[in-house]
Design goal:
The chain has 186 residues and is of the alpha+beta class. The protein is built from four helices and eight strands; from the N terminus they run αααββαββββββ. The chain has helices spanning 2-19, 28-33, 49-54, 100-108, and strands at residues 59-69, 79-85, 110-112, 118-125, 130-137, 149-154, 159-161, 168-179. A four-stranded mixed sheet has the order 4-1-8-7. The protein has a four-stranded antiparallel sheet with strand order 3-2-5-6. A hairpin with a 6-residue loop joins strand 7 (159-161) and strand 8. The longest helix has 18 residues, at 2-19. It is elongated. The termini are far apart.
Length: 186
């Protein structure tokens, strides 16, 4: 009798979990073998991808393109642009810390502006509307010293592309111009 009860309990539990979508999930190895939507400039890499896939959390690719300009409207070269989820609680100053996790994140979700101030950042994360962009001057006085800043970017107003495939919800792209101020103008 006790064995029948335990089998019934297990069957009911598995049925409820199956209806809630809590059955098997893809591993990161299987996800890496699936053909991804090609990005023209950089591969979208997410250091937290394994956790997101393991628990079956929806993910979305985010692409931020734009220019960093000064108060006169000219592009600024040598600025680092980092796309950060709003749940990451880091200030621009903390991005300078010698923390391996922070440095790995910066490598994955940042770009440095070219001579015209153009940049492209990629990130894969859970679907949220607002992300933050940290802009910091990493070349010092070479282009003039600029104030580091954090700017919110609303991806809900961005362009949606790519097909939904399982937990992957596609790609959202946003174009922005970010104005930075020289430290001497402050």
């Amino acid at each position: 009798m006790k064995i029948r009860f335990l089998k019934l309990k297990d069957w009911l539990l598995m049925t409820v979990m199956g209806m809630l979508g809590l059955t098997g999930c893809h591993s990161t190895k299987e996800a890496a073998q699936e053909p991804a939507t090609p990005e023209p400039e950089k591969e979208v890499v997410n250091p937290r991808n394994e956790m997101a896939l393991m628990y079956g959390v929806p993910t979305m690719d985010y692409v931020l393109k734009g220019r960093v300009i000064n108060t006169e409207g000219k592009g600024v070269e040598g600025m680092q642009v980092i796309l950060v989820n709003t749940k990451v609680d880091l200030s621009p100053e903390e991005m300078y810390e010698d923390n391996k996790m922070v440095q790995d994140y910066i490598k994955e979700a940042s770009d440095t502006t070219d001579a015209e101030g153009n940049f492209t950042c990629h990130m894969q994360d859970v679907p949220v509307d607002v992300h933050h962009v940290i802009v910091r001057d990493i070349d010092g006085e070479r282009n003039g010293a600029y104030v580091d800043q954090m700017v919110p970017v609303n991806f809900a107003e961005g362009e949606q592309s790519g097909e939904r495939k399982g937990w992957r919800l596609g790609t959202r792209t946003k174009d922005v111009d970010i104005t930075v101020m020289k430290k001497s103008e402050r």
